[in-house]
Amino acid sequence: MSNLKVLLINPNRMKPVVAPLALDYLSVSLATHGIDTKILDLSFSEDVDEDIKCSLKKEHFDAVGVTIRNIDDSYFASQDFCLEKVKDIIELVKIYTDSPIVLGGVGFSIAPIPALNYCNVDLGIWGEGELAFPLLVKALGIKKEYVKIPGLIFKDRDGYRMNPPFYLDLYQVSLAKRDAVNNRKYYREGGMVGFETKRGCDQPCRYCADPVAKGRKVRVRSPKDVAFELEGLLEKGISVFHTCDSEFNVPDGHALEVCKEIVKRKLGDRINWYAYATPFRFSEELALWMRRAGCVGIDFGVDSGNEGILKSLGRNYTPDDIRKVARICHRHGFAFMFDLLLGGPGEDRKTLKDTIDLMKEVNPSRVGISLGIRIYPGTPLGKVLGEKMQSSKKGFFGEISTEMLKPIYYLSPELGENIQEFIKELIAEDNRFFFGGSEDIEENYYYNDNSRLVQAIRKGYKGAFWDILRRIEETS
């Protein structure tokens, strides 16, 4: 009997390119189960139709997996519905093969059944795919086996059925082999390569879709496996990385152990890396070890500088915690970004001014301003605002629906008219601020098809996109 064979497709066409980490990790699991894997990476494709045709006409695949990283760009000014482009690619796939198509990925897992409906696909896996996808490939066509596969969503005559997920014990699984995706090409054209130290998020943020997509329990990887992964990528000539964790410092003890293992392997002075982190329980000790381990930049999602708004958003820290984090970062020489999320329930011009004033006071390397909150299904804020928008459309922008699949945003009516101009007046041309509320792409830090970033990376810039933009401005 011939081996089972699957084609994994990365449909993400955003520029600068971002490596499909999930496909690298998934390929390791498929190989362990004796399933041959080929990756069709459309990030670099110059002719999508031709590349899909050639891949599917050349050989037979038992299944075609499509990873969906983003259903939209989470950006109020553009409201780009990325899933529409993915659907077009899926329609091309259907032309050239009758093999079952399976959707998965972090973006897909936010709203899996609406996404399957929209793309007219019968099979999907929400949550992790390392166990579920190989089991599905082996059981294809045997529908009585489908109910046993964790995280599987499948269509029967009554509609879609959704199995509960199963989360791996990541400490006992090695994800370190990174040979399936062309990471060196992503490094050249994307300026960095991602890695995970954990999955899931237990933070209480009311708007965030990460707990919906990745699970609310934090599951950590072995620090040794993480360091081994970075060592292997370094041997390929890749030396700049970014964490893909929801928050690197949750739990802070595990983050500390990861840093110590990187230092133990003498990697700290050979690599540079960036992290997403929360101000909650970010300590001097962790900052010290992150620097020793090669971390050069941190992006903190601080959201607001007003205590009332922080509570409204479900954040578990205060403006004084933000001040403390800024002092720590300055002392340890980090480049650091404070990301703001403005316009949520209760936001008015006073709370907004409080936030901008605090940012000027604490002096981060850069401040990212996003105006308007994307409402996602399955989140506490999505539930509250979902009920509210049934009776009033005030404050809502985009396509109003209970599914919330297509971009739908909330912007507090208390902010009044011409709020973009008000923010610009508060910023007063301070170049520390990236304003994500403008439609002028050259004026902000919008990453989707950002020509400035693409050109800078081609010139040799490496690192987090916000830090590349910072360095471009400081050298121009």
Query: What do the pLDDT scores average to?
Result: 94
How large, in whole angstroms, is the Cα Rg?
22 Å
Strand count, sense and barrel status of the largest sheet are: 7 strands, mixed
**Count of structural domains:** 2
Query: Helix count?
Result: 19
Q: What is the CATH architecture term of the largest domain?
A: Alpha-Beta Horseshoe
Helix content bin: 25-40%
Backbone shape: globular
- The SS-based structural class is alpha/beta
Question: The CATH topology of the largest domain, please?
Answer: pyruvate-formate lyase- activating enzyme
Biggest sheet: strands side by side, in what order? 2-1-3-4-5-6-7
Q: What percentage of the residues does DSSP assign to strands (E)?
A: 15-25%
What is the top-level CATH class of the largest domain?
Alpha Beta
**Terminus-to-terminus distance:** 62 Å
Q: Segments where pLDDT lies below 50 for 5+ residues?
A: none
CATH homologous superfamily placement of the largest domain: tm_1862 like domain
Overall strand count: 19
Q: Mind explaining what this structure looks like?
A:
The radius of gyration is 22 Å and the shape is globular. Helices cover 38% and strands 18% of the residues. The strands form four sheets. It has a seven-stranded mixed sheet, with helices on both faces. A seven-stranded parallel sheet has the order 8-11-12-13-14-15-19, sandwiched between helices. Strands 16-18-17 form a three-stranded antiparallel sheet, with no helix packed on it. Helix 2 packs parallel to helix 3 and helix 11 runs parallel beside helix 12. It has 476 residues and is an alpha/beta fold. The longest helix has 15 residues. The chain has 19 helices and 19 strands. The chain has two domains: 158 residues, Rossmann fold (3-Layer(aba) Sandwich); 268 residues, pyruvate-formate lyase- activating enzyme.
